[in-house]
Specification:
There is one protein chain. This protein has helices at residues 3-15, 22-34, 42-48, 55-69, 71-84, 86-90, 93-99, 108-115, 120-140, 147-155, 163-178. It is built from 11 helices and no strands. The relative contact order is 0.09. It has a domain at 3-97: Death Domain, Fas. The protein is rod-shaped. Helix content is 72%, strand content 0%. By secondary structure, the chain is mainly alpha-helical. Residues 38-96 form the CARD domain.
């Protein structure tokens, strides 16, 4: 959706009573006038800040003027609205339409959960089995005579491996090194 179309859709919501007060409208107009790129000229800003006209009329004229100018001007209006009235910006009807999920679109958060539904305990169990098998294969392989290194690694692992399991592994390594 273009910003002009969104602004047309939000026009009634923005111009209805007590949505925007004069101070916020003046801040938006000043921002559109002073911030680069300059959206409103000085004369246009003075016209839309005229206190003699009602707020509803000034705001309606401003929105129609921005729609005539193009999409970039409408986008800058939304940026100014977000900076000066964020709660109102979040309540805009066009924002609610953008927030509603498309039924044909894949929800990546849900898809990520579906792929990882086993949880961290399953991962740790699989990793432990793989590490145990790798250690067992490494220690039992007759071509490797590096049991001293394995003994040092297992000797420094009382935190990782329980004391009883460590003692069993140490006894096994001693038996392997004797043979």
């Amino acid at each position: 959706q273009s910003y002009c179309h969104r602004l047309q859709h939000d026009m009634y919501f923005l111009t209805s009573t007590s949505r925007l007060n004069e101070q916020v409208v003046d801040k938006i107009i000043l921002q559109l006038n002073r911030v680069y790129p300059q959206i409103l000229t000085n004369e246009e800003a003075e016209k839309f800040r005229n206190p003699k006209a009602s707020l509803h009329t000034r705001l309606s004229d401003l929105l129609k003027h921005l729609q005539k100018k193009g999409d970039r001007h409408c986008q800058e209006f939304y940026r100014a609205l977000q900076m000066n009235a964020e709660q109102l910006f979040n309540d805009l009807p066009s924002r609610k339409i953008l927030k509603t999920p498309d039924p044909t679109e894949i929800d990546t958060d849900k898809e990520q959960y579906m792929l990882n539904d086993r949880g961290p305990v399953f991962f740790l169990a699989c990793f432990s089995v793989a590490a145990g098998l790798a250690l067992f294969w490494y220690c039992c392989n007759s071509e490797t005579q590096v049991t001293g290194r394995a003994r040092r690694i297992l000797g420094f692992s009382p935190i990782i491996i329980g004391r009883h399991v460590r003692n069993i592994c140490m006894l096994y390594l001693e038996d392997v090194s004797r043979n």
